[in-house]
Amino acid sequence: MEAAARRLGTIDAGSVAAIVDHTLLKPEATGDQVADLVAEARRLGAYSVCVSPSMLPLADIRDVKVATVCGFPSGAHHREVKAAEAARCVADGVDEIDMVLNLALATTGQYDEVRAEIAAVREAATAPVVLKVIIESAALTDEQIVEVCRAAEAAGADFVKTSTGFHPAGGASVHAVELMDRTVGGRLGIKASGGIRTTEAALQMIAAGATRLGLSGTATVVEGLPS
User: Residues in the active site (predicted)?
Assistant: First the structure.
């Protein structure tokens, strides 16, 4: 709690909600469920909603940012396809894009190629659109985590993000967030996402260095904190 408070300044429902991407990326999600997501994000004071590209553009958006995903969930797409998807999302009015890197490039040490595909998406989604790179940290070694974070920074990304939440290797871990923070913290944002279901887990991620959280059960997490 103390370490999280040092990161946020104040630990309460509002301060934690203010760094949450309130997320609904289930393939079967409906338009009505997305509308409910937006309403809940407003009620909780979440920073943004994160939805699938097919749900864009979102109508009557106010008070929350709109994020989407690119190359999701596998990342095993041609860089040109990821860039085209990102460009379409920008045209549909998103504020932020969370792209999945090609894991095979990372696990085989092709970090120049990792940087090149991130740069292609960055070129298609220029500032002020925020670009987050999902590195699928649970599937990488510590060395690979460090190298892909460096590649993301070199390519102009704004954030690195732990996980899609769909990979069988698992989601966010305190160790991965700490390593990401030591590598690019203070220059890039750190988003922890995947399997964060409790208030305690969220605070651990913040204490480790997370500056943004991806949560689907945001209400459960923030309502465990003082108002």
Answer: 98 (proton donor/acceptor), 161 (schiff-base intermediate with acetaldehyde), 191 (proton donor/acceptor)
Query: Which helix (H) or strand (E) element contains residue 133?
Result: strand 130-134
Range of the domain at 21: 2-222
Of the listed 21, 82, 98, 158, which one is catalytic?
98
DSSP codes of every residue in 46-111? -SEEEE-GGGPSPSS--SSEEEEEESTTT--S-HHHHHHHHHHHHHTT-SEEEEEP-HHHHHTT-H
Active site residue: 21, 82, 161, 181, which one? 161
Distances from the Cα of 92 to the Cαs of 14, 67, 125, 215, in angstroms? 29, 11, 12, 23
Residue 227 lies in a domain: no
Number of domains in the chain: 1
pTM summary value: 0.96
In the residue annotation, 132 being an active-site residue is answered as no
Could you confirm whether 181 is annotated as catalytic?
Answer: no
Domain assignment present for 149: yes
Q: 109-155, pLDDT tens digit by residue?
A: 999 999 999 999 999 999 999 999 999 999 999 999 999 999 999 99
